[in-house]
Design a protein that fits this description.
There is one protein chain. This protein is mainly alpha-helical. It has two domains: 79 residues; 97 residues, no CATH class. It has ten helices and no strands. Helix 3 runs antiparallel to helix 4 and helix 7 runs parallel beside helix 10. Keywords: Membrane, Transmembrane, Transmembrane helix. This is DUF4129 domain-containing protein. It comes from Actinomycetospora aeridis. InterPro entries: TgpA-like_C.
C-alpha cells in the first residue's frame, strides 16, 4: 500500500515516527500465517474452554486467509487487521500453552511442577471438597496417590508422568489395586482434561482408592 500525498518532514527535534509495515502482499502474509498456525503448540494444548475458543478463532482466521489468496478483504488495511488478529492469537496461545508453560509441566502431567507431599495434597483435597470444589478435590487426590507411590519408592520420582502412566506402573507393583489405580487415572483425566465435572461421589471414590493404595504392600520379585 503506497502512502497518499507527499511526506511531511518532522519538526526539528521531534521523535521519528515508527513505520507500520503494512506494505505486504496477501500471498506472503497468508503463507506466513499458515506456517505459524500449523505449529504443534496449537494442536497439543489442553482441551479446555480457552483452547476450544482459540481453535475456533484459528479456524476463522484460516478461512479469511484462504479468502485473501487474491485480494485481501478491505484492501491493505483489511489484511493488516487479519495480521493483528493473528498476532493476538499467537501471543495468547504461546503465553498459555507455549514454551514458558511447558517448562513448568508437561501436557497431561499429573503432578506438574508441584513438590508437595502426599499428605499436603490430601489436605488440599479435603479443603476443596469441603468447599464443594470437587474438580479440584479429584485433581489433588490423584496427585496424593501418585506422590505417595513416589514416597514409598514404588515409582521413581520424575516430572512429566501422566495419571495413566502412574496407574500402569503402580499397578504392576501393586496388583491388588491395579484396577483401582486405572479407575482413578480415568476419573482424573475425565475431570481435568475431559471437561466432565466431578461430584461428591467421585471425590469419595478417589479417597477410597488413595486409602486402598496406601494400605497395599508392594509385590517383590523372587
Amino acid at each position: 500500500m503506497s502512502p497518499v500525498g507527499p511526506a511531511v518532514p518532522a519538526p526539528p527535534g521531534a521523535p521519528l515516527p515508527v513505520a507500520v509495515p503494512i506494505d505486504i502482499g496477501a500471498d506472503p502474509a497468508r503463507d506466513l500465517a499458515r506456517e505459524e498456525l500449523s505449529g504443534r503448540v496449537y494442536q497439543e494444548a489442553a482441551p479446555d474452554l480457552l483452547q476450544m475458543a482459540l481453535r475456533w478463532i484459528v479456524r476463522r482466521l484460516e478461512d479469511l486467509l484462504r479468502a485473501a489468496s487474491g485480494v485481501s478483504p478491505g484492501g491493505g488495511w483489511g489484511l493488516l487487521v487479519l495480521l493483528v488478529l493473528l498476532v493476538v492469537v499467537v501471543v495468547v496461545v504461546r503465553r498459555r500453552f507455549g514454551r514458558l508453560a511447558r517448562t513448568a509441566a508437561a501436557p497431561g502431567a499429573v503432578l506438574g511442577g508441584t513438590d508437595r507431599t502426599a499428605d499436603e495434597h490430601r489436605r488440599l483435597a479435603d479443603g476443596h471438597a469441603a468447599a464443594g470444589r470437587y474438580d479440584d478435590a479429584v485433581r489433588e487426590r490423584m496427585r496424593a496417590i501418585v506422590r505417595s507411590l513416589e514416597e514409598r519408592t514404588i515409582l521413581e520420582a520424575r516430572q512429566g508422568r501422566t495419571a495413566g502412566d502412574a496407574a500402569r506402573e503402580g499397578g504392576r507393583a501393586l496388583p491388588p489395586v491395579a484396577e483401582a489405580l486405572l479407575e482413578a487415572a480415568r476419573r482424573f483425566d475425565e475431570t481435568v482434561y475431559g471437561g466432565r465435572a466431578a461430584d461428591a461421589a467421585a471425590d469419595a471414590r478417589l479417597r477410597e482408592i488413595d486409602a486402598a493404595v496406601a494400605g497395599t504392600r508392594a509385590v517383590t520379585s523372587a
